[in-house]
Amino acid sequence: MNKPIHVMSEIGPLKTVLLKRPGKEVENLTPAIMERLLFDDIPHLPVIQKEHDAFAKTLEDNGVEVLYLEKLSAEAIDAGNIKEEFIDRMLAESNIESEAVMSALKDHLMKFETQEMVDTIMAGVRKKDIAIPSNDLTTASNGEDYPFYMDPMPNLYFTRDPAASLGNGVTVNHMTYEARNRESMFIETIMKHHPRFADQGVEIWRDRNHTSHIEGGDELVLNDKVLALGISQRTSAKAIEKLAHELFDRHSNFERILAIKIPNVRAMMHLDTVFTMVDYDKFTIHPGIQKNGGEVDTYILEQGEESGKLKITHRKDLQEVLREALGVEKLDLIPCGGGDAIAAPREQWNDGSNTLAIAPGVVVTYDRNYVSNELLRQHGIKVIEIASSELSRGRGGPRCMSMPLVREDIKR
Ligand SMILES: NC(=O)NCCC[C@H](N)C(=O)O
């Protein structure tokens, strides 16, 4: 039987991917709240949807089955018959103090059929949409100045981050910022109740009930034995250690984790904003993470000799660590923006390093990163460009916008 989750590499031919079509949530932004909701600008909805549809079509034209988070979520809720429970759990994490608001929101959401309910939760609920009798102080003093009872989730189209496929399992992530933390409840529900995934042997390597945080942009599957995990603004060393114990103790196929430390800054929030695999022996890299002629702090985690203990080795020669881990003779690190003082940070900001490999040596990238794209081609990579004027406003690229569920195995 085909496994619903099967990802043993970053580059094996992509068979099934999970996307989220940007909806009303990306328009429910104002300058006052966009920074807290992790956006730098407000996308133009019809254009971002057009660009996203073109991204999905590019994948389908290349033989990839595209599934949508919003649709699977509604199907899972119906299959599990858990509409009320789902609403309760979502409301419990939506920062609602007033009981009157809580109960009015619940009534409001229960009235929708499931798909509309999911779309409404994702888009956010405006105060003007519900009349609430304000007979208590918490409700009455809940000022008019803030427009939402439930915040929108504009980052949902970055399906990469709330969960990650590792081998035949997933991590369902406790995320760093409140602005994104409810997002992983959708994928948790899908894994638990959708007939395509529930009771199909999908390992949950780590669930969202943790205090330490990890995001999928920091989780790279280099091959069936080695993972690269970013220690970053969004993924803590503690979470990586805990995940390593799970993977090793539960006898997953992974034997080694390369924990790669990157600067704790917004522009490089995840490892995949500065480093992605594009072929058996080729990576994109943003020179901004390298010190002293190429050094990057890297910690190799392996099962220790004593059970329950990890063996940790500190290295700085990332290139050599990768070469050894992949068993290749030479490694080609392709610098974002050609390493130019302007083009490199400009294109990295617009996710020039954030490529989505759909087969070995074949990647999808944003058209605006023309310096990086040209360089990738010079290094023998087939580059498929997609339009990106609105998609890029959320600070994520093709890898961030996709959660691979199934990739074909590669042999080398
Ligand atoms: N893997 C990624 O780098 N995802 C991009 C996430 C962008 C989103 N606005 C965020 O700040 O979380």
The named CATH superfamily of the largest domain: L-arginine/glycine Amidinotransferase, Chain A
Report the biggest beta sheet as strand number plus sense, adding barrel if it closes: 5 strands, mixed
Q: Write down the overall geometry.
A: globular
CATH topology of the largest domain: L-arginine/glycine Amidinotransferase, Chain A
Radius of gyration: 21 Å
User: What ligands are attached or bound here?
Assistant: citrulline
Report, as a whole number of angstroms, the end-to-end distance.
24 Å
Q: Estimate the helix proportion, in percent.
A: 25-40%
- What average pLDDT do the residues reach? 95
Structural class: alpha/beta
- CATH architecture name of the largest domain: 5-stranded Propeller
Description of the structure:
With 412 residues, the chain is of the alpha/beta class. It has two domains: 14-71 and 154-407, L-arginine/glycine Amidinotransferase, Chain A, CATH 3.75.10.10; 72-150, Pentein, CATH 1.10.3930. It is 29% helix and 21% strand. The protein contains 13 helices and 19 strands. The strands form six sheets. It has a five-stranded mixed sheet. Strands 2-1-19 form a three-stranded mixed sheet. Strand 5 (163-166) and strand 6 (169-172) form a beta hairpin. Helix 4 runs antiparallel to helix 5. The chain is globular, with a radius of gyration of 21 Å. The model has no long low-confidence stretch (mean pLDDT 95). Citrulline (CIR) is lined by residues 38, 155, 158, 160-161, 180, 217, 269-270, 272-273, 394-396, 400.
